[in-house]
Specification:
With 219 residues, the chain is an alpha+beta fold. 16% of the residues lie in helices and 35% in strands. A six-stranded mixed beta sheet has the order 4-3-15-8-9-12. A five-stranded mixed beta sheet has the order 6-18-17-13-14, with no helix packed on it. Strands 10-7-16 form a three-stranded antiparallel beta sheet. It is globular and about 40 Å long. The mean pLDDT is 95.
């Protein structure tokens, strides 16, 4: 069990697996030169990728290469299971926050070329910075605007209504193959506008109704 603790309305929940969805916004799939998927594209980050910078520095070594930002709605599971219906999957969500899926883009591009896993490009330490969680039943996620600014300039903008696959649909799909558990996190995909981050960049990520996430990139 991870020692990384998630605080939710006075409750402390050890973090589990980090499940992520690729290409869950059509405009992002287009900007990456890929097709809209017929079913959710899933990958994992280890629990050690989780970071709670709270306005502090977030260090990613320059030697890792090109670093990109991807703002996302993050869901916390309060319950898990196997082969969940979409209704049960929706009820499994206990909280939401804003997060940034940090990606080593050059490493990911090489992995795509060689049809290799994305583990290094997506799962390195501190690749999943997340803000504070608020309690939210899965059925109440609704339409939430999201954005990401770098040094005060808007880079990304979108809305959860633009997701190709809803949170409930993704969780239900995932549980066909993986047993999900209390404390697991779901990064739900990013809108268009992803781009590079450099040393000293100040990042502010936002999803409507939840606390902002901010950090300064150190390389």
């Amino acid at each position: 069990m991870s020692l990384r603790a998630i605080h939710l309305a006075g409750e402390v929940i050890p973090a589990g697996k980090i499940l992520c969805v690729g290409r869950n916004y059509a405009a992002h799939a287009k900007e990456m030169g890929t097709v809209v998927p017929a079913e959710p594209i899933l990958f994992f980050k280890p629990a050690t990728a989780l970071a709670f910078p709270h306005g502090d520095d977030l260090f990613v070594p320059r030697a890792f290469g090109e670093l990109h930002h991807e703002v996302e709605l993050v869901c916390l599971l309060g319950a898990g299971g196997k082969n969940l219906s979409t209704e049960d999957a929706s009820r499994a969500v206990a909280g939401i926050a804003v997060g940034v899926d940090l990606t080593l883009r050059a490493i990911q591009a090489r992995a795509k070329e060689t049809r290799s896993p994305w583990a290094v490009a997506k799962g390195f330490d501190s690749s999943a910075p997340v803000g504070d969680f608020i309690r939210c039943d899965g059925a109440d996620i609704g339409a939430r605007a999201m954005s990401l600014h770098v040094n005060g300039s808007k880079r990304q903008e979108g809305n959860t209504t633009d997701m190709i696959f809803t949170v409930a649909a993704v969780v239900s799909f995932a549980t066909r193959y993986f047993t999900l558990e209390r404390g697991d996190l779901l990064f739900t995909g990013t809108p268009p506008g992803v781009g590079p981050l450099e040393d000293g960049d100040e990042v502010v990520a936002a999803v409507a109704g939840v606390p902002e996430l901010s950090f300064t990139v150190k390389r």
